[in-house]
Design a protein that fits this description.
2 copies of one chain form a homodimer. With 307 residues, chain A is an alpha/beta fold. Helices cover 16% and strands 21% of the residues of chain A. The radius of gyration of chain A is 18 Å and the shape is globular. At the A-B interface, α2 of A face α2 of B.
């Protein structure tokens, strides 16, 4: 295998269903309707291991983002379970931002398990300002700042590169007038390369820049922001007062949505980071059919991508 | 019903099995051995609702501690699921300390769901020093400092009282020489009273004081620190370098353990906050039989206690 990716979680912040929500889509999930599959919050695990065997000596895993549901995700994924007395195959975590749904799972990785933690200087300074992340002791979890645009080596022979993606700072750091489409190191995407395979992961994007489009064109797989189908979806559902763009996410549908912007880019396009209000979560819905007709897939927990 | 308690999670920090652990007890859990039941991290939900119906108008729920597994716990507990479009029955959360396994679940309760958050001044100042908890906006989640020893009213007609319990500050705030049996507001227990019923919850105790013993004697149910069976259990398992006492937890067994100290106190005694190395997790083990012979129960996820 050249590069294997496990989708540990495919939902946006809050997960699907969301703890306090009974919107039309969540209601199906609470009722166990077979047209929808529950999803935990977005995180992926990548490896160059030849198979799912858990025998010692297998290649390590790298997590991209650590969702609040990480403990549940590890329990559901045999390949991520410990191999020795205290030996997890998780050798590194890379953060693409400092939001709760990207970082809270770091708190699950306490208990003195060694791994390397990568992120931009901005994201690591957000962690440093929150003492609770001190449960990851510096002597076992080194924090390594990486520059967007500079490739770096990850365990297992994976080459990675962070790159700027228009977005915003984490919600809990917003001021009164947050910049919504800033290209800063608060929000990045990641490209992963191994043995000639290329996967690009962009869980949050306010828009697609020309540089991003060039990068995606070369990718074998693109995992892209599928938060909302329509910009005003949460407002229409009575589930919130914010548009998608206010949250730093471009919509999936419409003339300036992801389906239009990514048309023809990459060999395989998969929407991820899907909000609980998004009707593409419902198999057979008009929006789901639109997505599929445009040649996009909808990520779900437990998906495995072998390149 | 006078006072109903749901055990949402019964494990200590890290849960059972723990992400990076293959000790003798965790190994049974990873293998699906029927003698052990997986457990999420300790949190309980209390209510005075007459039944489990989720129809609008039912009494609210109060959570005691918000474990990192809270999203999974809500999904597993129909009574805690939303009743209206955006209306959770969770009306309040009370913290007994600022450890990760007591607070990280607050991050799950974001998305502008209103509830009241109670804790000691010390615990609330720990939260305030970590900006990530700012996802709980002050206009929807008021934070209310309560004094140990002063009763206060919770939603649903529940009266509560925090009280000092010997313990220590959260791990991530430890200095070089943490005081291990301090009676400060960093670590408290809680007594809950409704309609004449009394439940006492003490998930962490370095020792039992005379004042605690007096309080427990009057209780219908005591939920008490069952972290480790033996003080050196983690060292013997090769799973760590700390004793239980170093972590602020008295052992279950032995001449100065919880079984001896609590003998005859309270009408029903249940051990909770059980570490993944603790052999009382194995049904039929000698330590489990010792606990049961002493008149104690072992908490598990999904237990319901009706008083």
């Amino acid at each position: 295998m050249r590069l294997t990716t496990f989708i540990l979680g495919a939902a946006a912040g809050g997960g699907f269903p969301q703890w306090n929500c009974n919107c039309d889509v969540c209601r199906l999930a609470w009722a166990g309707d077979p047209r929808v599959k529950p999803r935990t919050q977005t995180s992926i695990a990548v490896t160059t291991a030849p198979n799912e065997s858990s025998s010692p000596g297998d290649a390590p895993f790298v997590l991209i983002n650590a969702s609040p549901d990480l403990r549940q995700q590890i329990v559901a994924t045999p390949a991520l379970q410990p191999r020795g007395l205290r030996m997890s195959p998780i050798a590194a975590v890379v953060l693409t931002g400092g939001e709760v749904d990207q970082t809270a799972g770091l708190l699950t990785l306490r208990e003195r398990g060694p791994f390397a933690l990568y992120g931009t200087a901005g994201t690591l300074s957000t962690l440093a300002a929150n003492s609770i992340f001190g449960v990851l002791a510096a002597d076992v979890v080194p924090r390594k700042a990486v520059h967007p645009g500079s490739p770096f080596a990850l365990p297992g022979g994976i080459e990675a590169e962070l790159f700027l993606v228009p977005g915003k700072t984490p919600l809990y750091l917003e001021g009164d007038n947050p910049e919504l489409e800033a290209e800063t190191d608060a929000n990045v995407g990641i490209e992963l390369r191994a043995n000639g395979a290329r996967l690009v992961f962009i869980p949050g994007a306010a828009r697609l820049t020309a540089a991003m489009a060039t990068r995606l064109a070369e990718a074998d797989v693109v995992l892209f922001d599928g938060t909302l189908f329509s910009d005003d979806e949460m407002i229409a559902a009575g589930a919130g007062v914010k548009t998608g763009r206010r949250m730093g996410h471009m919509p999936v549908g419409g003339p300036d949505g992801a389906l239009a912007a990514l048309a023809g880019l990459g060999r395989r396009r998969i929407l991820i980071h899907i909000n609980n209000t998004n009707p593409i979560l419902i198999e057979g819905s008009p929006q789901r059919r639109t997505v599929e007709a445009a040649g996009f897939e909808v990520a779900e927990d437990g998906m495995r991508i072998d390149l």
